[in-house]
Amino acid sequence: MSLRIIGGAARSRRIPSPEEEGVRPTGERVREALFNIWGNAVAGAHVLDLCAGSGAISLEALSRGAAGVLAVEKNPRLCAAMRKNAETLGLAEGFDVRCADVIHEIGRIRAQGLRRFELAFADPPWREEALRRELLEALFTPEPICAHLVMEAPRGVEAKSEVGEARLVRERRYGDTCLLFYEAEPAGISGDASE
Fold it and tell me: Is the whole model's pTM more than 0.85, yes or no?
């Protein structure tokens, strides 16, 4: 099994799909819809990829011209695979992979005073509802560390409509998958995709 990069410099190239138990890479249709919605906002953006898993979102963003991607994943084997795949695709420049607990790492990012990310994506394990809530709080309070967040969740999830300064502005459903779009400031993102 493999995952295909959909657009940009590495378009149509493939990376191995992780064989780790419990890993559920974001499907190609969902990734394509996400990047259609983000559109031109990806080029030159600093992107945060949380619970990064296969790294498909990170690599897609780099392929499409992101200025840099910081990926956080706690599984060391997945982190090593992401780094290797980035090298293979020629996308290693600007790719920072951190092997750590996601909530702890967000705290470190805040403490380091890193620049705010324009775009963020989070795909926590679907059954971990408490982690979804923790992630939203960690990202948006006391002040946002990202301007726009997309969280992947199971269809039918009850989404929190407000977190700190951030608001849930749209939901998109693709089969069993739901994408939740949060904004901490007015969007310069106007693309859309059919449900």
Answer: yes
